Description:
mainly alpha; Adenylate kinase; 4 helices; P-loop_NTPase
Amino acid sequence: METIRRRFEVFQQSTLPVIQHYEKMGKLRRVDGDRQPDMVFEDVKAVFAQLNTQANQGSNVSRAQTNPFKRWFLDLFCSCFDVADRRN
Length: 88
């Protein structure tokens, strides 16, 4: 029981403020992780696709193409999960 209490305290002190920060910025996306893994994965892919579409609106160059870390992350995500790269 003490382990559970401590974990909840750590969540409230460390994790919750980060969640609240990104929620205030409008950058938090929630995915129901209680479902089957394949369904959760599809939801996560949809979030990334939506973010990529938003980033590319009004521009021929995505932010991922101009930022090496974002480019690396997107390449890694696409290759690990066989997601089509829709920037081209």
